[in-house]
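Async update (no meeting this week)

Hi team, since we skipped the sync, here's where things stand on the single-chain job. The sequence we agreed to prioritize is pasted below, unchanged from the tracker. I ran it this morning and attached the output directly underneath so nobody has to dig for it. Comments welcome in thread, and please keep replies under the output.
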Amino acid sequence: MSDNSDKMSDKKMKDYRITVRFPAELRQRLRSAARRAGTRESDLVRVAVERQLAAEDDALTAYEHAEKAGLIGTVKGASRDLSTNPGHFDGFGGS
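Output:
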């Protein structure tokens, strides 16, 4: 979408539009930075958000990444003692 219009500037774009409020000084800095970079304000905001989210992901532990991916939890329909009952380990780890 264009920064100055409700019309799509790219027919292929399937992004969502949000509204963000900035203090006047921050908005002026954003506008100036976009002009210097020869890009749109929305592109600068998008890149900044992506960097912030990537930094947060980098700060997660391996456990938190696995949990976020849905890899931590229970297996539906499995025995409740799957990880503790030696009977479930028959043949596991053998050559």
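Quick observations from my side:
The chain has three helices and no strands.
The longest helix spans residues 41-58.
Reply here if anything looks off.
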